[in-house]
Design brief:
The complex is a heterodimer of chains A (286) and B (122). Chain A is an alpha/beta fold and 286 residues long. Chain A is built from nine helices and ten strands. By secondary structure, chain B is α+β, with helices and mostly antiparallel strands. Helix content of chain B is 25%, strand content 30%. In chain B, helix 1 crosses helix 2. Classes of the chains: A alpha/beta (286), B alpha+beta (122). The complex binds guanosine-5'-diphosphate, magnesium ion (MG) and zinc ion (4 copies). Magnesium ion (MG) binds next to helix 2 of chain A.
Chain lengths: 286, 122
């Protein structure tokens, strides 16, 4: 059996493979995640991190929610405690990387050009430009975008999603794919809560729970140094947990990521399913 | 948007299967896609011809099967249908649920042509 699809054949779906459908035609059951190649690269990246005991955090949000400002405040607070490094994917320019370097922290800027998300290959290329030995925490600032970045595993251990209080507390309901992927949700710019009357942190949290997401919610202001202790404490806790995992030869993936094993059990190989899967076909002829 | 990247990944995977089976081309590609996968079926459908141009699947039909969102409740154990932004249990209302369908982005099956019977070139 071939290595592309053979691994996905189980006793339950085996009969579907190589079923002749017409003379000269063969139906092949594949059952493989479309982003499998990215996921393989992400697993490889995670091995790079785990080998060195590095905790890797992927920061995602809309543009301007305060990812870089949070990093600046975090790196200042942790400067005597840990060695941090940053991969910047947020802008086409070197601006964000320079803001990080101004803190005396190693930063590599991925120039994504028009790309709207980072993928595992871009991150791997970046790793080859960095000095990883001795790094405790690697932050990856993803492209400001609440849609695409959620679909691409980079090899991080945690997804941290920022929601600034100027954006509206219903963002988790509007971008469920992104907020379902969050291992922690940070409500940022809380210094502005006093002048905004339409952002309710409890509502934001309720929308997150509606996505069946148990992630901790932390409120902070990086600019006014409010609520930073809970976030820094969470980072310390996760770094300790990462070191304990590495000592046991274990790793961790973000809570929600595409997962081939899960697909096998969750997907019935013979649509339509009882839920009424609809199908629409598109001709791809040019 | 990232649908072009997804379409390119699809073309790569299908091409590998075509090669491994010594087929000449693919005639039908079935992808199962849930709303929580973060990929818009219509955008994937329009990106596919761009990614497939000149390949051994450029004349293939892309069949996108929409997977329903379903959750299993960890509190009452019942499986119910859900909306993509409200994954709570349809039976008891608890939010401690697990998505059992609706976040897949899966190359499900391919029909391969093993003899050369390409449609006439235009
Ligand atoms: N009032 C306030 N403004 C903030 C805070 N954090 C960031 N900002 C501002 O929000 C804007 C975007 O911040 P930036 O960190 O570049 O966002 P990014 O695009 O997510 O990296 C800048 O003008 C920041 O000064 C905060 O805690 N409070
Ligand atoms: Mg930034
Ligand atoms: Zn095969
Ligand atoms: Zn490597
Ligand atoms: Zn994208
Ligand atoms: Zn229930």
């Amino acid at each position: 059996m071939c290595d592309t699809c053979g691994c996905n054949l189980t006793p339950g779906n085996k009969h579907l493979a190589f079923k002749p459908v017409a003379k000269g035609a063969t139906a092949v059951s594949v059952l493989k995640g479309l982003l499998a190649k990215n996921d393989d690269q992400a697993t490889h990246n995670r091995e790079h991190f785990d080998r060195r005991g590095i905790l890797a955090i992927n920061l995602m949000s809309s543009p301007g929610s305060g990812k870089t400002a949070l990093l600046e405040a975090t790196l200042t607070a942790l400067k005597d405690e840990f060695t941090c490094a940053v991969i910047e994917g947020d802008l086409e320019t070197e601006n964000d990387a320079e803001r990080i370097r101004a803190k005396g922290v190693q930063a590599h800027q991925i120039v994504t050009g028009t790309a709207c998300h980072l993928d595992a290959h871009l991150v791997h290329d970046a790793l080859h430009h960095m000095k990883l030995d001795g790094v405790d925490i690697l932050f990856i600032e993803n492209v400001g975008n609440l849609v695409c970045p959620a679909s691409f595993d980079l090899g991080q251990h945690f997804n941290v999603t920022l929601l600034s209080v100027t954006e509206g507390d219903d963002k988790p309901a509007k971008y469920p794919v992104m907020f379902r992927a969050a291992d922690a949700m940070l409500l940022t710019k809380t210094d502005l809560l006093a002048v905004l009357d339409d952002f309710d942190p409890d509502k934001a949290e309720a929308h997150l729970r509606n996505l069946a997401n148990p992630a901790p919610v932390m409120q902070l202001s990086a600019r006014k140094d409010l609520g930073m202790d809970a976030w820094l404490g969470w980072l310390r806790e996760q770094l300790a947990a990462q070191r304990a995992r590495v000592a046991l030869g274990q790793s961790r993936r973000p809570a929600i990521q595409s997962d081939g094993v899960k697909y096998h059990s969750a997907t019935s190989p013979t649509p339509p399913s009882p839920g009424g899967a609809q199908s629409h076909a598109t001709r791809a002829s040019s | 948007m990232h649908e072009l990247a997804v379409a390119q990944a699809l073309v790569e995977q299908v091409d590998a299967v075509i090669r491994q089976h010594g087929a000449t081309h693919a005639s039908l590609i079935r992808v199962r896609i849930g709303p929580l996968a973060g990929v818009v079926p219509e955008l994937l459908a329009s990106a596919f011809p761009l990614a497939a141009a000149g390949s051994r699947m450029e004349h293939a039909e892309l069949d996108l099967v929409a997977a329903p969102v379903r959750v299993r409740c960890q509190t009452c154990g019942v499986e119910t249908e859900a909306a993509m932004n409200s994954l709570i249990c349809g039976a008891c209302g608890d939010w401690h649920t697990q998505v059992i369908s609706g976040d897949e982005l899966l190359l499900e099956s391919i029909e391969l042509e093993t003899t050369s019977s390409l449609p006439p070139e235009s």
